[in-house]
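Researcher: Please translate sequence to structure tokens.
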Amino acid sequence: MRIGGFVPCSLNDFPGRIAAVVFTQSCNWRCPYCHNPALVYPEQFTAPIPVADVLARIEARRGKIDGVVVTGGEPTLQPGLAAFLGKVKRLGLATKLDTNGSRPAVVQALLASGLVDLVAMDLKASWARYAVAVGVSTDVAAVQETMAILAASGIPHHFRTTRWPGFSDHDEAEIARLIRGSTHSWQEYRQGPSQA
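Model: Translation complete:
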């Protein structure tokens, strides 16, 4: 697993918990408004932090944290994700996964294995404008499948949407319709390094 960043303590990323945050490198999308380009574009990657070092730092913080968030980039691209989450769970810590929802089979497998306690999933735009929002041609049906998996899972989950430049009233209305009955938050766009 390629880890590009580690925050030992966060009060904001895992609702109701004090958590460490692990940032994975690589993403299958190229959102033009991305706030973490150093985790998306390989030419901006730093040398990955060894997984063993991150796990040792997490273990050393037991009693000070009660959860670990794995975010990105897009964590479901990481072949070592399940093994990493399993090791975190064996430390007695809760786990949260942040995902773009593009890999439903991975999300399904993690949930079925009991490796994730909370999932936060981004919804980028109305379905017709998803490719515009994510910067590449994408399989909208896969994102829809992940939404359905979460809805049927019984696992706590949350959707979130950033009002990015070009986000339309139609996008907002469509997303509001899609998430009816689910927890959802709107996030305001903040200019990141790639837009400066």
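Researcher: Any highlights?
Model: Residues 158 and 183 are 5 Å apart (CA to CA).
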